[in-house]
Amino acid sequence: PSDPPAPPAGFWIRAGAFCFDYFLLALVLVAVRLAVPGGVPSWVLAFPTLVAYFGLLPPHWDGRTLGKALAGLRIVGPDDQPLELHRGLLRAMGYIASALPASLGYVVAAFTPQKKALHDYIAGTRVVRCEEIGWARRLPLIAAVPLALTVMLVPTLYRLLQARQAVGGAP
Which of 39, 78, 113, 139, CA to CA, is 20 to 30 A from 6? Predict the structure, then answer.
């Protein structure tokens, strides 16, 4: 008899793992930005870094990123098979579709029976719980959510402030 399918990872634990990864990558990208001379657009630095982390790391590390490992999660292919390289890359590229518009492709995971986000449907993957975790591992995931949201909002708020100052508004 075959093993029963692994239980799907819920929306909030996935969100915590993603925010943990996002915050770590933001730190890496700031360091890279400081090391690279000006004039190079940020997306030229960010895109390959994000594809490498979210697309190449999981197929080579049991379907995990650092955030997913901390959360006791892993990404699997059809029939809970190990994540293949092409699915990992397709899933990473699918993050673009999940982010547009307004990150609704991520939110879909809260409402589907297998807790699959849009990028999971695109790549034929799902995220499963592979181990139970205690509070010592949950706390960094919880803390990562406001940190990641801050990192996401700061550039936008900075640009808005610059635009306001450019048109003569108060700082």
Answer: 139
Query: Which pair of tokens denotes residue 102?
Result: 């307004």
How far does CA 7 lie from the centroid of its chain?
20
133 vs 27, 107, 137, CA distance in Å? 25, 23, 6
Q: Which pTM value belongs to this model? A: 0.86
Distance CA(51)–CA(74), nearest Å, equals 17
At 22, which amino acid appears? Y
Confidence category of residue 167, pLDDT binned at 50, 70, 90: confident
Give the chain's mean pLDDT: 91
* Contact in structure between 61 and 78 (CB atoms under 8 Å): no
- 115 near 8, Cβ under 8 Å? yes
